[in-house]
Design goal:
alpha+beta, seven-stranded mixed sheet, OB fold (Dihydrolipoamide Acetyltransferase, E2P), 19 strands, elongated, Immunoglobulin-like
């Protein structure tokens, strides 16, 4: 074998050896990509944050949209239908691929556009990260802050500028709201809500001028100084959450995340 042939053979053997050495790494990366990136044809939209593909339910990650009977429920559903119904989307998964109901958890993409994020940007969903904040959280939170319509629209109620959250002890499930104006504010029908489905609806209640009210997540009987959020063992999650306060017409009075 001449010198040139020996050089070619040595090069081939070196390349083969290198490939065999890094193959497990490449294979793992390829498998990870295939597992975390799939496509689906959306043949049904159940509501604003849940779709179906071939009878498989897919829950959109990072967001929560209104329930049936709540303001903007239908609008959120129709908005999502316009975006994805009868279209092929790319799925990208988070930490958990399934939720406790067996639904697939995913971010939906059409091209480079994140469908989940679009729902937040247009005010049809609030941010929702019950399993902990992932790499998308900051972008979603910034989009919520910039949003100014639909669910993000600021309340026009005369008391919206008066009511302030002066204490939010999420670990002990304690909130205090203060009326910073000199006149009384009727809060009957106002709602405190977390990022998910839990909500407290104010009973018939007037918060007098320059006074405050404590709201506790606990069993108890309402009095002039304390209101009780009953029916829940806890509301605020350790992994991070948001408090949304809305007036009786759904206008956003305030919100705070931790």
């Amino acid at each position: 074998m001449d010198k040139k042939s020996r050089y070619i053979l040595a090069t081939i053997l070196f390349a083969l050896g290198l490939f065999l050495a890094i193959y497990p790494f490449l294979d793992a990366k390829l498998q990870g990509y295939l597992v975390s990136h799939e496509t689906a044809f959306i043949d049904r939209v159940i509501d604003g944050d849940t779709v179906e593909s071939n009878e498989t339910s897919i829950r959109l990650l990072g967001i929560n949209t209104p329930e049936r009977g709540e303001i903007y429920y239908l609008e959120a559903k129709e908005f999502l239908e316009d975006l994805v119904l009868n279209k092929t989307v790319r799925l990208e998964y988070g930490k958990d691929k399934k939720d406790r109901y067996g639904r697939t958890l995913a971010y939906l993409y059409i091209g480079s556009n994140n469908v989940n994020l679009k729902l937040v940007e247009d005010g049809y969903a609030n941010i929702y990260f019950p399993s902990g904040r992932d790499t998308n959280y900051n972008q979603f939170a910034q989009s919520w802050e910039k949003c100014g319509e639909n669910l993000c629209e600021i309340s026009k109620h005369e008391c919206a500028r008066c009511i302030k959250l002066t204490k939010f002890d999420y670990k002990n499930e304690i909130m205090i709201l203060e009326n910073t104006c000199s006149f009384d504010c009727e809060l009957t029908g106002w709602i405190i809500k977390d990022e998910g489905r839990k909500k407290f609806i104010f009973p018939e209640f007037v918060l007098e001028g320059l006074e405050n009210i404590e709201i506790l997540v606990d069993e108890g009987k309402n009095n002039e100084n304390t209101l009780y959020w009953t029916g829940e063992t806890y509301v605020w999650t350790d992994s991070g959450d948001s408090l949304f306060l809305r007036d009786d017409e759904g206008g956003l009075v305030l919100w705070e995340s931790y």
